[in-house]
Amino acid sequence: MRRILKVPVLVGGAAAVAGCAQSPSEKPNVLLIVADDLGIGDVSCYGMGKIHTPNIDSLASVGVRFTNAYATSATSTPSRYAMFTGLYPWTNPEARILPGDAPLIIPTDIPTLPKMMQAEGYSTAAIGKWHLGMGDGHIDWNKHISPCANDIGFDYSCLIAATNDRVPTVYVENGDVLGLDPDDPIEVSYKENFEGEPTALTNPEMLRLTWHHGHNCSIVNGVPRIGYMKGGKKALWDDEKMADYFLDCVKGYIDEHSGEPFFLYYGLHEPHVPRLPAERFLGSTPYGTRGDAVVEADWCVGEVIRYLDRKGLLDNTIVIFTSDNGPVLQDGYNDLADSLVADHTPSGIYRGGKYSAYDGGTHIPMVVYWKGHTKTGISDAFLSQLDLFASIGRIVGGNVPEGLDSQEYAKSFLGRSKDGRSDLILEAKSHLALKEGPWLLIPPYKGLKVRPDTGTELGNLDEYTLFNLVDDPHQDKDISAAEPQKFEKMKATFHTMVGDYYDPDITQKLKQRTAPSVDAR
Fold first, then answer.
1. CA–CA dist 257, 117 (Å, integer)
2. What b/e sequence results for 4-13 when a residue is b if at least 16 CB atoms lie within 10 Å of its CB, and e otherwise?
3. Does the pLDDT value for residue 12 go beyond 70?
4. Does residue 497 fall inside a structural domain?
5. Does 158 have pLDDT greater than 80?
6. Could you tell me if residue 126 is inside a domain?
7. 486: domain CATH number?
8. Measured between alpha carbons, how far is 40 from 247 in angstroms, rounded to an integer?
9. Structural domain contains residue 271
10. Contact assessment for residue 434 and residue 494, using Cβ atoms and an 8 Å cutoff
11. Does the structure show a pLDDT above 60 at 515?
């Protein structure tokens, strides 16, 4: 059992520094926007890529843009798990890329960020991308699904169960599938198809987007997905309308809760595959539908910020924008993202991306804005999304459990300090690495050097390897021999921190574990 530490509202921190006292009735709203597979080079204010993101840039111009911010993980499920629980995801064996029918992996009896906000009088909501599981492992999609997001601290939820490339392709509101016709029940399987149902393999003529790898199961809206699904025709989402749908949900929630403090998690689905932005965004960039999906995501950010402003709520809303992990180009569909990328660099100057232990897998964009409280500028403070739990708790005076992996850097998130982490364990599909300041230690792992389907450099190295990310951001030079004391010290620290969680043969063991499922990606 974790002890709960009651921390005061940040009168001596944010409020005092900003020059204004803060009563409980004036607690700020918190809007957490998390993009999906968006790289640091995809955001133009970082000056690394070629896609223009004017709305995120505008937020950064009045807020704090972080250049040394990290997700805990190079894939979405574990990084979101860390944000909401304040715990390292690699300590939970279920915190890995989940199929669409996976059970909820956050235990309902542990402290969470949204539960803390509820206890402080906040209305809480989760809208958009979820991918943390639903139900108990035996889901009947035609009945109320429990446990769900509402059971870990969200008063309201409207979500996709996993990702937009996985079945079921329906919206789930407060544990119930929206628009479901009881005469056309939904069935979902990640093991075998339903008799007579078309797939990408049996009926390729039905496809408007062809598959490259992994996505050859059920066809929904002319798009092949991961997993098999039958029924629920009236409940199916429209891919091209998803951005507008969730944005409307966000605006509706803001309307209903404008008179009370709220914590709103807004999970963008862009630019995750399949990249099917609304028609009005097609051709926005020369980089194909992935580039267009980035522009759509940026537009969504701008729309919600402008809506808060029109409602008179922006001045007292902490806006946090970030991404769940690094970028990927070829991720299962023949959408030409890899051939049209040209001079655009989604990972910026960093090596690797989604799925990778190299820096590009977890080095993510982050912007924070709170009018009158954030100090506008650029910060190189070493922070992680893992630290949002403790840091937001400090700001709102919440009950932050002792024993979390989340660390409190409220002033740093507001740009008022450069204090940051001394170290952080990073994770890429159960492969662990240690970052200390500018140093990154990657231990040896068995497995392929490059993932053949995505072309991602995985960081599976033969020996313990040390990099200096400031001098060598692309990680081209192993400096373990040149820095023997630092090298040995970090090796010892790494093993002390992770213990038996380090397994150089974990790739093969995970393959054996997931063999019965079609969801091995």
1. 14
2. eeebebbeeb
3. no
4. yes
5. yes
6. no
7. 3.30.1120.10
8. 23
9. no
10. yes
11. no
The helix or strand, by DSSP H or E, that contains position 297, with its residue range, turns out to be helix 288-310
Per-residue confidence (pLDDT) for residue 481, from 0 to 100 = 98
Q: pLDDT digits over 367-387, tens only? A: 999 999 999 999 999 999 999
- The token pair that represents 379 in the structure block: 């910060």
Model confidence pTM above 0.85: yes
DSSP conformation letters of 68-114: SEE-SBSSHHHHHHHHHH-S-GGGSTT-SPPPTTPPP-S-TTS--HH
Among 463, 383, 465, residue whose Cα is nearest residue 417:
383
Task: Please state whether the peptide bond connecting residue 168 to the residue before it is cis, i.e. omega within 30 degrees of 0.
Answer: yes
Distance (Å, whole) CA 64 – CA 299: 20
305 inside domain:
no
Q: What is the pLDDT of residues 239-263, one digit of tens each?
A: 999 999 999 999 999 999 999 999 9
The answer, yes or no, to whether residue 7 has pLDDT greater than 60, is no
> What would the pLDDT profile of 296-316 be if each residue is shown by its tens digit?
999 999 999 999 999 999 999
Domain span including residue 466 = 424-514
Report the run of H or E that residue 56 belongs to, with start and end.
Answer: helix 54-62
Would you state the structure tokens that stand for residue 336, as one six-digit string? 């030409």
Cα 421-426-431 angle, rounded to 5 deg: 160
* Tens-place pLDDT, residues 332-342: 999 999 999 99
- And the tokens for 191? 């093991």
Amino acid at 249: C
Give me the number of domains the chain comprises: 1
What is the residue whose two structure tokens read 């990640």?
190
Residue 507: the pLDDT is 81
Q: CB of 437 within 8 A of CB of 381?
A: no
Contact (Cβ atoms closer than 8 angstroms) between residue 516 and residue 191:
yes
* 409 contacts: CB under 8 Å, gap ≥ 6: 381, 383, 387, 390, 391, 417, 419, 420, 421
- What pairing do the DSSP bridges indicate for beta strands 123-129 and 262-267? parallel
